[in-house]
Amino acid sequence: MANQTKQQELDAIKQQIIADKVCADLAAQATQLVFGTGNADADIVLIGEAPGKNEDLRGEPFVGAAGKFLNEMLAMIGLKRADIYITNIVKYRPPNNRDPLPEEKSAFLPYLNQQINIIDPKLIITLGRHSMDVLLPGLKISQVHGQPKRYLKRVFLPLFHPAAALYNGSLRQTLIDDFLKIPLILEKIND
Questions:
Q1: Whole-angstrom distance, CA of residue 35 vs CA of residue 86
Q2: Selection from 87, 112, 106, 82 nearest residue 35 by Cα
Q3: What's the total number of domains in the chain?
Q4: Residues 6+ apart with CB under 8 A from 152
Q5: Structure pTM?
Q6: CA distance 143 to 124
Q7: DSSP secondary structure, 122-158, as one string
Q8: What is the pLDDT of residues 22-47, one digit of tens each?
């Protein structure tokens, strides 16, 4: 029953974003709000930056090529999407897939923090520089990727964005290697 309640709380946040007209200009040009999907009781939450074209159309994060790669990496560590929760900082697609603006990220941050608090994961994985900057300010992803960080009583794992690995072949193996550390990191958190 606990899971159902968490899902209801998450649904309430989703409705609140719409009611609060967060980033109304972004919302106006997007197909829909892309809130997040997966297990509301997950030990792992993955956070990307913003929905792209496929995500905007389907209303689900990480469903394009980067999502397919993400699914492959999850399978490598014995997980599937139903085991985790996945979302973005910014919940509407920025026009032409531009980077989310600082004010857009800060407008959505309180809602993202509520999502995290409800799910209460053991591990938060930031995918790419944007989500890392918002949740772990002042770090450089090239220096800290794959290294767990404890911050505000939570454990974060900064990773390169799967899309970056699709464009840059050398990052692909780095991201896979970092991803393969996840079970061990979870084990250490559980100790």
A1: 9
A2: 87
A3: 1
A4: none
A5: 0.95
A6: 18
A7: SEEEEESHHHHHHHSTT--HHHHTT--EEETTEEEEE
A8: 999 999 999 999 999 999 999 999 99
